[in-house]
Amino acid sequence: xxxxxxxxxxxxxxxxxxxxxxxxxxxxxxxxxxxxxxxxxxxxxxxxxxxxxxxxxxxxxxxxxxxxxxxxxxxxxxxxxxxxxxxxxxxxxxxxxxxxxxxxxxxxxxxxxxxxxxxxxxxxxxxxxxxxxxxxxxxxxxxxxxxxxxxxxxxxxxxxxxxxxxxxxxxxxxxxxxxxxxxxxxxxxxxxxxxxxxxxxxxxxxxxxxxxxxxxxxxxxxxxxxxxxxxxxxxxxxxxxxxxxxxxxxxxxxxxxxxxxxxxxxxxxxxxxxxxxxxxxxxxxxxxxxxxxxxxxxxxxxxxxxxxxxxxx
Length: 313
What we know:
Blueprint: E1 3-5, H1 26-47, H2 50-65, H3 68-86, H4 93-112, H5 116-128, H6 133-143, H7 166-169, H8 191-194, H9 198-205, E2 209-214, E3 220-225, H10 226-238, E4 246-251, E5 278-281
Antiparallel strand pairs: 1-3, 2-3, 2-4, 4-5
């Protein structure tokens, strides 16, 4: 599947017709046994959903018995139950834990049965909904080397900032103010060169799954591989073709795609940097007027962005 709803799950029709030989990763099994002890009892008590709780318990039993196909089936059922519930809003945090734990049990099953790309997809889904970073790192470290990455050339992007449009030059409603606190740092990040090369990004990221906002105004959220994001949205719009505006927006990409984090280092700042997010979008993306409750350091690595700021008054 190239494109999924934001909360995506896998049905029985996607399970293997017969059970491949399970070769369980000792690392993933050990991590899930610890996660079971840490999260399972509290998660089940708070859910108030016996069938979903039973699916998760059976998924962990399958991990203990190293039954890969049962991990996929029961982990997928737990993940699917949480998927359905989360579509209606954000209930108790236990439902998010169910989503993540079910996805990781299924990921271990896919990995054990030689389906590494599906294992990584489920790991990414768990990460996107907040699975603990150390647990995600263990899964990524174990699964990533088993995936054959795409080796494709470019294109290498080069941007000249376009002239400002009339609506950007026109006086803003309210009182616009020059941006303050701008730091001009001589950053020597490999990212400035590497991330212009879409072949490099496809190799590092094409098989990984990310949340994508589609459209302008009425936004719909989707989950897709980064390779699908490139082929369906970014590359067509770069070529001038009609395709949806698409935006990987304010996403903790580096919390689960750890290899890209090696392409930059956070500059020295007066305060500790608590979170590093990524924004990757086509042209035409628009962020509505808003106020952040925390301070930001913004670095434009590739391309350009028009920003209008207002005095806090």
